[in-house]
């Protein structure tokens, strides 16, 4: 399951929902997101943008 420091969900009406420090799973009906606040299911998804910063070696 992928991890993202910042996950932005772009909805069909071009609004955006941003999540911090999450795990997520894309599926046919949308995206399931796990945060410290609990689990979220977003079904109105046009696009996602996930960023993860890694420590430099």
TrEMBL record:
It comes from Paractinoplanes rhizophilus. This is Uncharacterized protein.
């Amino acid at each position: 399951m992928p991890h993202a420091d910042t996950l932005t969900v772009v909805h069909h009406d071009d609004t955006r929902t941003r999540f911090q420090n999450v795990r997520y799973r894309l599926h046919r009906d949308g995206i399931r997101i796990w945060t410290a606040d609990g689990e979220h299911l977003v079904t109105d998804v046009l696009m996602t943008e996930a960023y993860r910063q890694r420590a430099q070696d």
